[in-house]
Amino acid sequence: MALIVQKYGGTSVGSIERIQAVAAKVKAVQDSGDQIVVVVSAMSGETNRLVSLAKEIDYCPAPREMDVLLSTGEQVTIALLCMALHKMGCEARSFTGGQVQILTDNAHSKARIRGIEGIRVNADLQAGCVVVVAGFQGVDDQGNITTLGRGGSDTTAVAMAAALKADECQIFTDVNGVYTTDPRIEPKARKLDRITFEEMLEMASLGSKVLQIRAVEFAGKYNVPLRVLSSFEPGEGTLITFEDEGMEEAKISGIAFNRDEAKLTILGVPDQPGVAYSILGPVSNANIEVDMIIQNIAEDDTTDFTFTVHRNDYPKTLEILTETSGILGAREVIGDDSIVKVSLVGVGMRSHSGIASTMFEALAKEGINIRMISTSEIKISVVVDEKYLELGVRALHEAFALDEEPQ
Ligand code: ADP
Ligand code: ASP
Ligand code: MG
User: Fold this and answer.
1) Which of 8, 351, 364, 369 has its CA 20 to 30 A from that of 244?
2) Which residues make up the environment of ion ligand 3, defined by Cβ < 5 Å?
């Protein structure tokens, strides 16, 4: 008898009919004699609807209350799914994150799961009951409701699978696996049968929203066998695996992109020790995460310094930088919040050269200007104007023949 954790995302539970279809799939697992824990998201659009309701009252509502509000979306789905299961003659019990004791830190809206021990569902599973858990939420040590950040139900599912030592964690969504890039942007994108944890981690951190990055981190840390599959079509989906000899030897596995980017430049800063700290210190003190950073070579004892932040943090960062500019006697501050980051990811980059030049050539052919570049062992990212996102992704997909099976 296996223990399976299945997670169904927003679109998969987006209507009563879809919830009933999920119930039928869950019942089939139960009928086969396996134990099953189901983690569900809020019905599609619900989390966004709740966010807008809050913003009608206050653009910056108290984070604690925001989490109380947002966690209700998932609570609706767990109850409805259990009702649908009952109607099919299947025993099922729903639990909120707090009830199963998903313990988190107190960072509201982006809480991290702390403990995964003693998750309270074993007795129900032993009794042959389907356990349905609300994704995306937990409680801190004071009992306050917390949420895990957008896409956080993936992380709940992996955490449950790790805690229960499940045989597999299956993430059911609206695409039938992990593709070479978002199939909504490049219809020629190819589904991958397997992808390594390392590559999936890069893809997720560089913007591929198919899995929340923390879910992938968790799966890697606790060795959780993880699979992404379609709620609507049959198929094996994509298995996230540790690198093994049988892996296809692709140079590039995929292309990720992130629209939530903005870039800022401070021009003509005196080039002296401590300048990077003077610029980025106040940004970090305001809890703003900085992504790419470039400092130009000095000319006339002054230098230019460019970095990127999340687009939501752009106005605040611009304000901070303008203040810093005054203090440092810099020439000017400029910014652009209509840029995107496009990244190539692949473990094969370690052993192949010439990938960066193929990438830059493909973008140049389309007349796409590269504004920033950053590289690491298994990825190359470029910042380009937002209007070039689709064109850039498709050009790279073509240049690396990602629609074809690797030889
Ligand atoms: P869910 O609500 O089920 O959690 P998400 O919208 O969070 O679903 O994630 C699935 C979506 O991720 C797909 O519809 C697709 O547009 C997007 N996506 C982005 N990159 C990829 C990729 N490389 N492979 C598959 N899907 C991707
Ligand atoms: N409902 C949350 C969101 O929309 C969490 C999730 O679906 O994973 O982000
Ligand atoms: Mg998701």
Assistant:
1) 8
2) 9, 151
- Tell me the best of 182, 203, 216, 393 to mutate to test the pocket of ligand 1, counting ligand atoms within 8 Å of each CB and taking the most: 182
Is there an atom of ligand 1 within 6 Å of 317 CB?
Answer: no
Nearest ligand, measured from the Cα of 12: 1
- Predicted confidence at residue 407, as pLDDT, reads 66
For residue 392, the tally of other CB atoms under 10 A from its CB is 24
**Are the C-beta atoms of residues 218 and 151 closer than 8 Å to each other?**
no
Q: How far is 106 from 102, CA to CA, in rounded Å?
A: 12
In this prediction the pTM is 0.93
Q: Is residue 55 within a helix (H) or strand (E), and if so which, with residue range?
A: helix 46-57
Contact 101, 118 (CB under 8 A): yes
Q: What whole-number distance in Å separates Cα of residue 394 and Cα of residue 402?
A: 10
The CATH number that domain 255-399 falls under is 3.30.2130.10
Residue 327, phi then psi, degrees to nearest 5: -65, -40
Cα 11 to averaged position of ligand 2 atoms, centre (Å): 10
| Positive or negative torsion for Cα 318, 323, 328, 329 | positive
Contact 133, 126 (CB under 8 A): no
The mean predicted confidence, pLDDT, of the chain is 94
pLDDT at 249: 62
What tokens appear for 284 in the block? 């970090």
CA distance 312 to 331: 25
The answer, yes or no, to whether residue 246 has pLDDT greater than 60, is no
CA atoms of 18 and 77, how far apart (whole Å): 11
Q: Are 309 and 279 in contact (CB under 8 A)?
A: no
CB 129 within 8 A of CB 165: no
The sheet carrying 137-139 orders its strands as 113-115, 103-104, 137-139, 145-147
In the chain, domain spans: 3-174, 255-399
Cα–chain center distance at 204: 5
Same fold? 3-174, 255-399 = no
Q: What is the DSSP string of 21-34?
A: HHHHHHHHHHHTT-
